[in-house]
Amino acid sequence: MGKLDEKVAIITGSTRGIGKAIAKAFVQEGAKVVITSSNKDNVAAALDDFPGERAFGHVCDVSDYTEMEKLVATAVERFGRLDVFINNAGISDTFYNITNGDPQEWGRVIDINLKGTYYGTRAALNYFLETGHSGKIINMAGSGTDKKSNTPYISAYGSSKAAIARFTFAVAEEYKNTDVSIMLLHPGLVRTDMTSGAQSTPEMKRQQQTFRTIIDIFAQPPSVAASLAVKMVQEKGGCKTGDYLSALDRKRRKWLLFTYPFRKLLRKIDRKNY
Predict the structure, then answer these.
(1) CB 28 within 8 A of CB 223
(2) 127 annotated active-site
(3) Beta 84-87 vs 8-11: how paired, if at all?
(4) d(CA 77, CA 74)
(5) CB-based burial label for 47 (10 Å; 0-12, 13-18, 19+)
């Protein structure tokens, strides 16, 4: 038996990276998952990696509340219920200072990351409250969430993650007397397209070596965050509303920093994207 037997989970932005790793971990623990992306080709490709009876794909723009409501309705229609909603979809702004960056791009990051999290939380809450179901909602933290985590040159991303944290704790307090658990997960630093530095701006070029070293030290595979997501929603030993788990907490950061010279010497640093 798995830790999540027959639970049904929606994971936004789950065709690759952290979202896909969480979806795979959930399926391995017995759950059924709804894979989502705004790109239908990405959804179709991702579904090939999941057993057909345990995964369903749905194309959804998280910045559109109507589509998020439809996502919840479709999941319930397909699997008969919904137990977990994970607001994972996210993008980052190009590595620029704000006077050189595109204002429309800045706003798009807020639309996807912050508004998308609000829309997903609201749509899932409405379902859980109307049905009396004891559901769980996980929102995703990131660089910018913690007090000392500054995000120069990606101010939209950092601002969105700081706001998501405040939003999550506010809503957890609002609904603390219900059976819905609203929690925050920091996936740590993962080598995805978002952190690959593919967009080579002047600011990125100036700081490229420092950026690469930081990733070499602290990056972890998405399976670390996925295991925490499983822990947060499992029935036994799970987390409660308002909890915050991080794949890069103080203890883990110290360990990664301590082991870095040895991993570098032994060529044990994994530099592939997920």
Answers:
(1) no
(2) no
(3) parallel
(4) 5
(5) middle
pLDDT in tens, 93-122: 988 888 989 999 999 999 999 999 999 999
The C-alpha atoms of residue 141 and residue 94 are separated, in whole angstroms, by 19
What pLDDT shows up at residue 148? 73
Q: Give the domain ranges of the chain.
A: 8-190+221-255
pLDDT at 123 over 80: yes
Tell the residue number behind the tokens 């704000």, with chain if given.
98
Residue 219, φ and ψ in degrees, nearest 5:
-70, 140
Q: Give me the catalytic one of 118, 119, 153, 157.
A: 157
For position 150, what pLDDT does the model report? 82
**For helices 17-28 and 223-233, angle between their N-to-C axes, nearest 10 degrees:** 50
Does residue 1 surpass a pLDDT of 80?
no
d(CA 165, CA 158): 11
Task: Calculate what percentage of the chain has a pLDDT beyond 90.
Answer: 78
Note whether 124 and 76 are within 8 A (CB): no
105: closest CA among 143, 39, 157, 53?
A: 157
Mention every residue, 6+ apart, whose C-beta is less than 8 A from residue 202: none
Alpha-carbon distance of 109 to 123, in angstroms, equals 20
Token digits of residue 6 = 């027959």
pTM for the structure as a whole = 0.93
* CATH class (in words) of the domain with range 8-190+221-255: alpha beta
Judge contact between 86 and 9, C-beta under 8 A: yes
Nearest in space to 187 (alpha carbons), one of 274, 82, 122: 274
CA 78 and chain centroid, separation: 23
